[in-house]
Amino acid sequence: MRPPVAELHLHLEGTLEPAFIIETASKHGIELPWRSLEHLEAQYDFTDLQSFLDLLYVNLEVLRDEDDFAEVTRRYLVRAAAAGVRHAEIFFDVQAHTRRGIPAETVVRGIRSALDRSVADHGMTTKLIMSFWRDLPAEDAMGALTHVLGAGLPIDGIGLDSAEVGYPPSLFVEVYRMARDAGLHVVAHAGEEGPAEYVWEALDLLHVERVDHGIRSLEDPELVERLVRERVPLTVCPLSNVRLRTVETMAEHPLPRMLELGLLVSLNSDDPAYFGGYLDANFDAVVAEFGLDARAVEQLARNSIDSAFLEPDERARLH
Ligand code: HPA
Ligand code: ZN
């Protein structure tokens, strides 16, 4: 049995399984570019982050009504509970939906209706993090945040994702200031495909509490020293990194080095329906590749709890 674990880097849109995509398209009479389930399943061979995002952004268009958002959330919670997840912090990409005319209200209410049952159904606490596409103008993110805050929609934090290179954190200083002023938690993807410099910016300009991915931080010893000293959590996603060719093979994944250096790393599934598995599969993959012992697995699990946005009593319950 694995110790209690938190999942902190999980894109809800990345949990749409191929069968669900086909079913939901058919429910709404949506014509996808895929002729069949097999045709869709043949699309999952990625060369980089962008090639994956291209597929992700087509498929998520099947999400139309509140019930779709509730259903995809319910399915994730069931699967995560089976993987041993006791606390989940879930991203959704607001602009992926609002740009298609789906109101943020529909998205948040649908997701929340499922999250509201997760303690009762699975003993799992949750947080909801609204992410912005960094390859859209910061004004667009600002508009979405202003709307969601004004409407009083219940989110716990903001994040930053999508195509990284060429879209540095410095573009989003105002958005993050507004979020922090509103009492929201703040995280950002940085150092996945982008350079260590983006991790510095995320820390110094956006004042993020956690860095998503962050694996390219290892290229900068001074940055590593700071991340260790300040115990900045890094949410690492091994299967994602291999499938998006951020690292060439699992054997070359920097996870063991990150642990050795004393970085506060946790394991996460990122977009499990696209990258070959949920959190349990990520644990299994690194245990198999690196022969991690029970102590290292416990350390990773403990790190995830320490990296979560939990109150002290909730944290104590999971330790
Ligand atoms: N990186 C950037 N954007 C994303 C990712 C990711 O790993 N997953 C979903 N959107
Ligand atoms: Zn991600």
Automatic annotation (TrEMBL):
Family to which this protein belongs: Belongs to the metallo-dependent hydrolases superfamily. Adenosine and AMP deaminases family. Adenine deaminase type 2 subfamily.
Residues making up the signal peptide according to the UniProt record: none
Entry annotated with the keyword Hydrolase: yes
Catalysed conversion reaction: adenine + H2O + H(+) = hypoxanthine + NH4(+)
CDD domains in the cross-refs: ADA
Organism the protein comes from: Agromyces kandeliae
Biological processes per GO annotation: adenine catabolic process; hypoxanthine salvage; nucleotide metabolic process; purine ribonucleoside monophosphate biosynthetic process
Functional summary from the UniProt entry: Catalyzes the hydrolytic deamination of adenine to hypoxanthine. Plays an important role in the purine salvage pathway and in nitrogen catabolism.
Adenosine deaminase domain residues: 4-319
Record InterPro entries: A/AMP_deam_AS, A_deaminase_dom, ADE, Ado/ade_deaminase, Metal_Hydrolase
Residue positions binding Zn(2+): 9, 11, 189, 270
Cofactor notes: Binds 1 zinc ion per subunit.
Catalytic activity, EC: 3.5.4.2
Keywords from the named record: Cytoplasm, Hydrolase, Metal-binding, Nucleotide metabolism, Zinc
Active site: 192
Cofactors named for this entry: Zn(2+)
Residues that hold substrate according to the record: 271
Stated name of the protein: Adenine deaminase
SUPFAM superfamilies: Metallo-dependent hydrolases
GO molecular function terms attached to this record: adenine deaminase activity; zinc ion binding
Annotated site location: Important for catalytic activity: 213
GO cellular component: cytosol
